[in-house]
Amino acid sequence: MDKPKDSKIKAVILSQGNDLMSKRASIILQADFAANKHISEVKELDMWSCVKVVVPKTDPHYSVNPEAHQPVLFNYLYKNSQLLSLKSQPEIIPSRLDFKALSSWLIKEKPKIALALDPISRDLALEIRRKERLTMGVIAVPSRFYVNAYWARDEGDLWAVPLPENREQLLAEFVYDKRIIISGPLVGKAQFAPIEKSVARKKIGWPQAGFFLGIVADGLLPGLVEELIERLSAYPDMQLTLVIISSDKNLRTNLTEKAQSFLCKMIITDMPDEPRFLLSSLDLVIFYHDALYLPEVLSSQLPSIVISRKVYFKLREEELNLLAAKNAIWRAGSLREVIWMTEQILKNRHILKDFKNQIKKIFYPQPATSKIIEEIFIRIKK
Questions:
Q1: Are 340 and 333 in contact (CB under 8 A)?
Q2: What mean pLDDT is predicted for residues 158-170?
Q3: In the predicted structure, residue 29 carries a pLDDT above the cut 60
């Protein structure tokens, strides 16, 4: 990376705003970069706002719900059979995209650092850097726990990955080891230190005693939400409280009207913009993959059952496989599995402590954002 003329640098973050993982990662990075005295300015660009891709309306991946899944752009490019051998077709992604808006924006902003949260953003930034002869450093910061060949395509200045396994995945794709750092799960200073359960519950006005089981309704069909509540509320435990979390006001209203028909105590709430206190108040949470920002759940040391989206592309399956193998999450593929797992946990609550100890092992002594900023300035000074 070239040394800046002054002591401060300008950074930009390239995200996909319709993807929860990318959006939340961008917010976290912006907060910590903006607070650093050596960074003059940090800006975000939602790639989905300026990237145009030609996708036939009849394409089966065109109608993917962008609020629940990666945007159509991401799904289409990586599931299209013509794009499987990207390394042998180095120009194929840029040739499919109209990136004039992004190019103009980067030329205008003149950043020293561009942080790309997904492979497409990274490819575009590198291509524009070549064509426009920009001096910015391009840093790959995966917002997920899995990287593959698409992340390794072409040269880059730095890869900041969350886990040692991610480093091995990049090395297998012949990425130079000196360009890879392990930063830990992508959380910042505000999310890094767990909040004591008693403090969190007092903050949001919950009782100190009891077992609070969170169910994130976003991504689940309304009928499945009600069935899950009915099955779990029948569990014979007077200490059990179900916490239903949904961003859908109509669903919250509907469940509130039916609350008395269920057999256990219930709390129905929306999803706060900053969910740390809510997450830290729970004993266990159940959610559909991508309904919550996984690094933030893990940094709260909150045991979780993640429902897999088996019909979607391999990247997500591998992410859950990796975390489940490290005993950082429980993974379920069906409602039946969710109920069985939950009942086993309720019967054997001592395993939650062991689970939390496993989660601690994947974090490093400092937040990922601090490690990334530190590494940027080390490399600039060289």
A1: no
A2: 94
A3: yes
